[in-house]
Design a protein that fits this description.
Blueprint (H helix, E strand, L loop, with lengths): L1 H9 L4 H15 L16 E3 L2 E3 L3 E3 L10 H6 L4 E7 L12 E4 L4 E4 L8 H10 L6 E5 L10 H12 L5 E5 L14 H22 L5 E5 L5 H14 L3 E4 L20 E4 L3 H15 L5 E4 L5 H9 L4 E4 L1 H6 L1 H11 L2
Parallel strand pairs: 3-4, 3-13, 4-7, 7-8, 8-9, 9-10, 10-12, 12-13
Antiparallel strand pairs: 1-2, 5-6, 6-11
Length: about 325
């Protein structure tokens, strides 16, 4: 009820302004924000990628790009928080407007473009936080880094975040950075994963701790591309796959006044596509690499469908914008037991 009232006011604002107002308001509530949340974990622990997750419902990357809101997000009842996408150097992202709300379809189109304060300042924010839960750090490349040198940016970020992250997510699937999705091609993905995993092994030896590495992929993949991702994930022994990012398709929103805006579509319309990619990955991997299901979760049944399709964990973002903290409790309840 409280969030429905707040949403009514927030949805009168520009979407990007509403995003900032909502997050800052939660910070202003301090410890009282827990009253809006899903409560303490209730025997919902799951061990995935060697990590103990207090519950299987996490916050997807994109909501808290700069790790500025870890405490209030944790208080709402998420079992993990993934921050970013962060790049080696700060960048403003794409010109505004770049975020569009499709209320009737419970969807968002965004072309943010990895706007973030850069990895050094993001890590300072992490250091100032009292959050001690499962922290994923999602890394990407700067817009002006040529695709041929993309590995340099991922390695720089990996070096920087390794000691702070519980796990690292490699974002090769945003549609809002030019040519980024080319990294999902067989040749480039083989090269990138080889470089990243070799560096991870070096960092693990230095730190005396192996931090899991997961790769976030797009939903706009054909069967041949999915098979290649399965093959290369097994070859390079990555620790997890996050399926999926936003779609460049517009199924389910045709005719909406924002349907032709450039960017990635998230929310309810991506659910079926995302879940089908998840299902195909699960079939190909046969349990050898865990999957995190994200894309279009608007209720408990959606979260359970992701698990039934082969995910070990789920993440939410757009659904949280439309449903608020109630979605966390509902998803957790559907996955309990």
């Amino acid at each position: 009820m409280l969030y429905r009232l707040a949403r009514s006011a927030l949805f009168r604002l520009d979407p990007e302004t509403a995003h900032e107002v909502a997050l800052r308001s939660m910070c202003a509530l301090g410890p009282a924000v827990a009253l809006l949340g899903a409560g303490a974990d209730r025997g919902e622990e799951r061990t995935v990628m060697g990590i103990r997750f207090p519950n299987p419902v996490g916050l997807a990357a994109g909501m808290d790009k700069n790790a500025e809101y870890l405490e209030p997000m944790a208080a709402l009842g998420f079992g993990s928080i993934e921050v970013g996408t962060v790049t080696p150097r700060p960048q403003p992202g794409n010109p505004k407007p770049r975020l569009f709300r499709l209320v009737e379809q419970e969807a968002i189109i965004n072309r943010m473009g990895f706007n973030n304060v850069g990895v050094e300042k993001m890590l300072r924010n992490v250091g100032k936080s009292s959050f001690r839960g499962v922290l994923g750090i999602n890394i990407g490349k700067n817009l002006d880094t040529p695709i041929e040198r993309a590995a340099d940016d991922y390695l720089a970020c990996l070096d920087a975040v390794y000691d702070r992250a519980t796990y690292v997510a490699v974002n090769i699937s945003s549609p809002n950075t030019k040519n980024l999705r080319d990294l999902q091609s067989r040749e480039r993905l083989d090269e990138l994963l080889g470089a990243i995993m070799a560096r991870r092994d070096q960092l693990a030896a230095r730190a005396g701790a192996v931090k899991p590495l997961a790769v976030k992929i797009a939903p706009d993949l054909d069967d041949e591309q999915i098979a290649a991702i399965v093959e290369l994930s097994l070859k390079h022994r990555i620790d997890g796959l996050i399926a999926t990012n936003t779609t460049i398709g517009r199924a389910g929103v045709v005719g909406h006044r924002h349907a032709n805006e450039a960017g990635g579509l998230s929310g309810r319309p991506v659910f079926a596509l995302s879940t089908e990619v998840l299902r195909k990955l699960a079939r190909g991997l046969a349990g050898r690499i865990p999957l995190i299901g994200v894309g279009g979760i608007l209720g408990g049944a959606d979260a359970k469908a992701k698990i039934d399709a082969g995910a070990s964990l789920v993440q939410i973002y757009t659904g949280f914008i439309f449903r608020g903290p109630d979605l966390i409790a509902e998803a957790r309840g559907a996955l309990k037991g």
